[in-house]
Design a protein that fits this description.
The protein has 78 residues and is mainly β. It is 6% helix and 38% strand. Bound molecules: zinc ion. Zinc ion binds next to loops.
Amino acid sequence: MAGPLSEIFAVDVTAAVGRCSGCGSTGPVARLRVYGPEPGLVARCPDCEQVVLRLVRGPDAAWLDLRGAVSLRIALPS
Ligand SMILES: [Zn+2]
C-alpha cells in the first residue's frame, strides 16, 4: 500500500500509527493486512479483521475511505 498512498500524501503514511475503530488496537499502517488491488485496496486490522482503510484509484482521482480508523498519528519533523 506504500506506493499508492505515496501518490496522495507527501509523508510516508505507512509509518503512521493508526487506531482501529473496531477493537481499539494501535499500530503502524504497514501492519494492516492488505487485500487487492481489484476492485480496490482494502486494509484490515490484524487483530479484529475490521476494514480500516480502503483505497480506490480511478483514471483521474483516488477515493480514500478511513472510516475504520479512529485516528492516524503522523510523525513530522519538529
Ligand atoms: Zn481492530
